[in-house]
# Entry
Amino acid sequence: MGRRDPLRLLSLPVYGRAAAPMIAIPESSHAITKFCGFQSDGYLPSSEVLMKHTASVTSLFPVEASGPDLVASELVAILPRAQLAKCYAFQLSHLAGPLYPRVQRVFGGAHAPLYLLTDRTRRSVWNAVLAAHHPAGDMRQLRTQLLETKSGTLLKQAFGGLPRGFLTILKKSGETGLDPDFYHFWHRYLTDHPEDFPVVAARGIFDAKLTDHMHGLPPALARLPIVGRFQSKEVRRLVEVMTWMHGGRPDPAIWADLAIRLIAGENPLNILTKITDKLTFPSPYITGDHRFRHISSIRDLKQTAMRFENCLGEPHSLQAGLRGYLQFYEYHDGKDLLVVSISAEPPFGFMVSDIRLKDNELPEQAQLDRITKALAEHAVIERRSVLGVIRDWDLPDHDEDIFAPDF
# Structure
């Protein structure tokens, strides 16, 4: 057989074109049929199948320039001398990944090289088709369809439709097969959100990690314009905090509103900060006294901390004010401007906690006496807690210990 004869057997129409008649394989091509996986069938599909499959093994041949035609030619020449493996299960399981049980049904045994040598993009289409439905029926017929049918047609038949961008995602899904859920999720996603195609086109990789992250978000937030813009931990923390804020079961409308803001580019931390800044503290204990202005919200306390250049804007102070453990007031009697904090001892009223000037400076004794007198008018004094006195009932009194912390 001349040099062109084997190539003629292997040179068939490009994928998607009408299939030419099946051609019987001569005895001299026994090694080729064994390698290509058609030995048991006795026939070779009349398409440029093998030349396409062998493109990925170009590096095996020491030539300066190569292509599918040249690789096929070299392969035909060298295969009769090759010591071919009897089993390709290891290679097949590695490349097929979680789809191995399905891939093995179609490309197991002598047919494995077809799957192993096929172009990555085309193989990803096969993976999606096999993920859509567990392969059943005539495997030879299914194999022929996978080899000779256009990618778009295969996907339409398997999923019932081909949304724009699905092929793009398959091209970016890596070398190995993925869990069937991956293919179903992204087909459904692009069917529901065709407007996200530009984001799909711009994104580099689609893998199991991204899919798992999307699964972990409320449906309204599981959008590529969101997860592609922000770090996964930012979106995850936003979801966690919003869930806590709404008693563990937020209304779906909350997620829909957040999605609009995130897609518009608003940062998750800024969203949370705006929400928490609006939170108000419990009602003031000291009322009706113009000298004491109650600091009534998280935003108010942060602004006060900036003006007084102290630590009241830190989380521990904000949390104490929000829970009502502490109340904060600005004291101004025309002479001094200070910040006063009083601590709650329900149901026994409040005690003096701290009195500070700007930069956390302690007031002079005259200032301190004037403010403590004003506080005493509202029954807020420096004292021990009721439970602290009971705890230390049998201990001697020491003036220097009276105002020591009780807890």
